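User: Need the bound-state model for cytidine-5'-monophosphate:
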Amino acid sequence: MVTPFQNRRIILGLTGSIAAYKSADLASKLAQAGALVDVILTGSAAQFISPLTFQSVTGRIAYTDSDLWGSEGHVQHIGLAREAQLLVIAPVTANTIAKLAHGIADNLLTITALAARCPVVIAPAMDGGMFTHPATQSNLDILQEREVTILGPAEGHLASGMTGMGRMVEPQVLLGHIRYTLSRRGPLHNKKIIVTAGGTFEPIDPVRGITNRSSGKQGYALAQAALDRGADVTLISAPTQLIAPSGVNLISIITAEEMKSAVLQSIPESSALIMAAAVADYRPESPLGKKVKKSGGIPEIPLVGTPDILTEVAGEKSKHGYPLMTVGFAAESHDLLNNARQKLEEKNLDLIVANDISAEDAGIAVDDNRVTILDAGGGQEDLPLMDKFDVAQHVLERVLGLLGVPHNE
Ligand code: C5P
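Assistant: Bound-state model below.
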């Protein structure tokens, strides 16, 4: 599985905050994802956590100020800075923020930061008072103007025992932002991709409704795979339990009608629409304003059809040309390929991803999928059982092919 982390050179700098312990997890996750992580600890960071911890999780040397004047000299570290594709400083203290803002280079990390020409991401961690101090705020403004990405701090319990703004954002969140930053020059750079996900919810009354078992996992995986290739991704999502990938433009909707409006508003200038959502085909005709009472007997709930979004998109495309290409999904319990091919033609799709929902190990609400991709040219690609993220990779590779975009960066 190729991700934006693969073989990317990342410098992870740490400064003197108790949050440094969380960065061991970040370093480990980055290394596991395939990045080449060079850690640099300031003197105060090394008071909180040992370089050995980082060497153990990255498999590479973790540098401290004792390497600055060592046999290899700091010239080597200027080299480190030049090779870096991303500099992350997490946690970064008010002190180091001030040094970065004013170009002070008095330790290995700040020397490296001054020498580096790659994107910089910082995750502040400090006591609330230090964060809100005008000096820190104006230093952060300077860094923001220089296009440094500043993540956090978050609100919560602080080491001082107080509660406030000052906690470093969690490693998982940092990882998402780093992934997004690393992906920006991918093959779908400057291309807009729209993905729909999840199962719509059609209200009966204020508490009940008609929905389906779609988890949204396949749609979210497609959004991530498109982001990983550099696309600007709009994710139009029905309610799910999932966390949206970093960098996505999330539009949360509930009903099929809302999904339709969001899709139609988003398609101008878009390169592709991938409709992975399980959209309700019927909805209660007139949702009730008050909860239906049990005492009223068994209610009759008249249903009416919902709009077929892909059919409407096909109409728009014939008038305005967008989206450049359209991918549909077909979840079928019988006669899978014939039904899917029919939908491909009726909805004027470029690709349809067919999955047999009668299988217990694949499809709706589970992590894996076994799909066949059919194309408008009559082609058929049968994929074995695989993780939904791997299915997403295959679909995105096909999208790249149809858009005529070269696969490598
Ligand atoms: O016709 P069927 O619902 O089986 O087609 C599935 C495909 O059509 C999916 O891509 C789904 O997102 C899309 N769809 C739609 N509008 C609907 C129902 C489904 O665009 N009302």
